[in-house]
Amino acid sequence: MDQHTIFTIFHILGVAVGAGGAFLSDAMFFSSVKDERISRTEMRFLFLGGKMVWIGIAILLVSGLFLVFENPQRYLASSKFLAKMTIVAVIILNGAVFHLHHIPRLYRHAGHHFPSSDEFMRKAPFLLGSGVVSVVSWVSALVLGASHKLPYGYFTIMAGYLVILALALVISQLLKKRIIAHPKKRP
Asked: What region, left, alpha or beta, does residue 43 occupy, with left being phi > 0 and alpha being psi -120 to 50 degrees?
């Protein structure tokens, strides 16, 4: 097995662990909020899913750097690669916001009826938006990574990504009351 194959295997492993952790964390969150409470146990699983995302991103970045160093001219001249790197930067930035702002807020509300919390409900659209950015960005990076060649330039690819992201954000906010419980008094 040559080094390119080894780097590629690790790169795919990083994608699987990172995207899998992100998708699983999102699914666990939406499953958890159906009863309008997040238990400490559910929070531990969300925290574990978050760790998997960061481990996946670390593997992805290291293996990706090794792949780029094999042929930097090819990668740096590729609009698809540059768009994918921009989207990975969005994933990392969004992940940092999620783990530094949203997870502590969820942890503070663990075990409580969160629709009764004014703070939680004020911040719920941002929490939901962060989840949407995560899903759309991971799927976009996966599609770009799996595409061999695209006949589009960087700005066209990024414009398409931004349009899809904006539509997903608008739809999520329109469906917010169905996704995250609306404010009501504790029964």
From this structure: alpha
